[in-house]
């Protein structure tokens, strides 16, 4: 992975390397390495499952070969990406440029992921209604910068309204709080 | 009972007020999701699967199928009005569709696309009715080795034709298979890769994975962009002129035949049908010189082809149990969620359901035409709703959806995890389609392989000794070899990385 350090320097020659460029150039290498790691993990994990038994291939047969395949393919991909970086202008780099990567902003991505995990963690202790109310208010007021009244209306409908619709009308149960005081309040 | 009597019975139950209502809701919801930036019909279905969890299987599948083609039409609307294809299959429609919009002819383009889609879908569904019985009888004669080899053809086509890199396609397919390994193994009943969590003994549920990969992944990937605002055509602009209709008719005819035939081949996405239909027009249409500058043929042919393809893709699903595209794979996931395994046995196990669904395809196509085309103005107004509001509502929905499958918070984390996976796949240009297909087909592929080897007592020769299996394997190999060789050509043709998504 020591070659990765060359990338920002190389881009810097032509102009200032943005954080985005750097991320873009290192990410495929990281993912390829992850693919190799996942393959290796599958290979190791499958060995205890039984490769072959009296009836034929055992539960470990398929994952073992998948692991081998993933390690090999991941290494080939890693090699390709590395070669494209060491010899710019060759190999897959032009192809990657043609393909449009959709716009994303890293702060938004992180905010979305963290807020979803916090919501998931709060669902059981606090219950659906309050957690979703706070989650929606966060997304509408803080991230979306919508007005207070509009946000409140949408958040109340999305939390209390949806809870009522799902539990009463669609008979899909949504979590209620496990804290007695909140539960007694119907949350 | 012959096919047509069965179909009539199917109509009787597809036209009950309840099923009609679900088809209608599905069409409307699908169109709305299809219009939203970044969400195609595959993601739309995945996000809305949870709504169908408490319905009876027929209604659930009718609604999801309606979401499927509603989403495709929603994608057409944004292609024509905004030059933004909701999915790969409408990418080609942008060329002439957007040119027509610039000339003030957006209405005619959208109406022609709607009419073409209806005709194409109806013709393909008729083909499904005719081919279903004989093909499913053939399907019943296919043993595990043939099934395994046939799935390999589908995967080879998907990996070879859709993505630009065969290597990345195979990696994606392997990862999907590996995720499918989680849970109790299908032959011995031993838990595998469950991390000692009883929750994973039943395997990782499809819904949170699909919702994560397509829904959340797409929302994360587009989190930086602001949605553009279109202007809606008036109702009068919607009416195509007589010249439009005369010019579109032959293109619709050619598009319908191309889509129906190509849709039969498992693994080929509908983007290929659209592309083929468009290039056919470019070669043989009387107005071929106008293509690219707003010719009606350039909208009619690909739109007809992709809808007839989408409907024809039900044929391999119902007769062989092989989903031809990620969208159909999601639908297959919904079948499995309802305890039904699509395939030739389904015609004997649940004939009522199959024919109801087939009949509903006709009904849905008609609903799409009479409802959605005149409502274009309303649909475009959805894009006027601030994106941050839409996104917050979608988040709430995907959280409820993932939770409701097993009433478990773990599934929300699974969804978030696969959201990250989908996001990273998009950033490094790994195609998502092979992963989804192997994820859903994984247990079937593994059972077929292991049963074959049990029959042959461990001899891999069984795959080449049985003639049909040998032919399938050779075809799969040829496709892979050809796609490796033509990788450069494909790059020139500018095919989308992940055409269906």
Question: What would you say this structure looks like, in words?
Answer:
The complex is a heterodimer of chains A (187) and B (501). Chain A has 187 residues and is mostly helical. Chain A folds into two domains: 9-98; 106-184, no CATH class. Chain A is built from eight helices and two strands, in the order H-H-E-E-H-H-H-H-H-H. Chain A has helices at residues 6-14, 19-47, 61-86, 93-98, 106-126, 128-143, 148-169, 180-184; strands at 52-53, 56-57. With 501 residues, chain B is mainly alpha-helical. Chain B is built from 24 helices and two strands. Chain B has helices spanning 3-14, 17-35, 41-48, 57-82, 91-102, 106-140, 144-162, 166-181, 206-221, 235-238, 242-263, 270-284, 297-312, 314-320, 326-337, 346-349, 351-372, 376-382, 387-406, 410-427, 433-455, 462-465, 467-485, 487-493, and strands spanning 183-184, 191-192. A two-stranded antiparallel ribbon of chain B has the order 1-2. Classes of the chains: A mainly alpha (187), B mainly alpha (501).
